[in-house]
Design goal:
Blueprint (H helix, E strand, L loop, with lengths): L1 E5 L2 H13 L3 E6 L2 H7 L6 E4 L5 H7 L6 E4 L4 H14 L5 E4 L17 E3 L4 H6 L8 E7 L4 E7 L20 E8 L2 E3 L12 E6 L4 H8 L1
Parallel strand pairs: 1-2, 1-4, 2-3, 4-5, 5-6
Antiparallel strand pairs: 7-8, 8-11, 9-10, 9-11
Length: 218
């Protein structure tokens, strides 16, 4: 799958890490060169500095060939323009947009090219903004086109998976660990990896829900 993500931040970074680890072609665009530089080495995404609300920048980012465009900036007006341009000019088959201000939610519909709107009150944005620090397992995103969900679970000292080898853990059918984030760095998972408190696992699954992942690791 070819994915274009507009906006670095924690949301864009996490999604880029998961999708690249799963073998997808990902391009990340942001207007801030420092934020783009900070992402280097954290995932295998193609990085581009520019305003994704401009036709020329989306063209360079490959919007015309993207299967999925994710507008994940911190400004609703930018996310709407990005979504509209991706859908109307480049005919992106699936556009996901983040809503930062709930009062603007009514704008995020097909008229602006948005297929899936992610409100600020959902677990996805709450997690990224660290507003749900007590939650150990959260559904990040459902990618309807790919038919998979992205779920994160955090290993703590109390987790039953702490100290166990990843290969010894029976995952739900149709589920794989895309990456293990350790000390802020994404790590390619292997059966011999021993899970430690502080590890964050990003999983991709066709079937499992939050409660299923929680039951396995927590």
């Amino acid at each position: 799958m070819n994915v274009l993500i507009a906006g670095v931040g924690r949301l864009g970074t996490r999604i880029a890490q998961v999708l690249t680890a799963a073998g997808n072609e990902v391009t990340v665009v942001d207007v801030d060169e420092d934020r783009v530089d900070a992402l280097r080495g954290q995932c295998d995404a193609r990085l581009l500095v520019g305003d994704a609300g401009e036709t020329a920048v989306q063209s360079r980012a490959g919007a015309a060939h993207a299967d999925l465009v994710i507008a994940a900036t911190g400004r609703d007006e930018d996310n709407l323009v990005i979504s509209y341009l991706a859908k109307r000019h480049f005919a992106a088959p699936r556009v996901v947009a983040r809503i930062n201000d709930d009062e603007n939610a009514w704008l995020f519909d097909h008229h602006w090219g948005v297929d899936i709107a992610v409100p600020s009150a959902t677990p996805l944005v709450s997690l990224i903004e660290e507003a749900t620090g007590a939650a150990d397992t959260v559904a990040l995103l459902r990618l309807s086109t790919a038919g998979v969900g992205i779920i994160e679970t955090a290993i703590t000292a109390r987790s039953k998976a702490a100290g166990r080898l990843l290969g010894d853990i029976q995952l739900p059918e149709g589920t794989l660990v895309a990456t293990v984030v350790r000390d802020g760095n994404p790590t390619a998972p292997s059966p011999s990896m021993r899970l430690l408190p502080g590890d964050e696992l990003l999983l991709v699954s066709h079937n499992a829900e939050e409660q299923d992942i929680h039951a396995v690791f927590q």
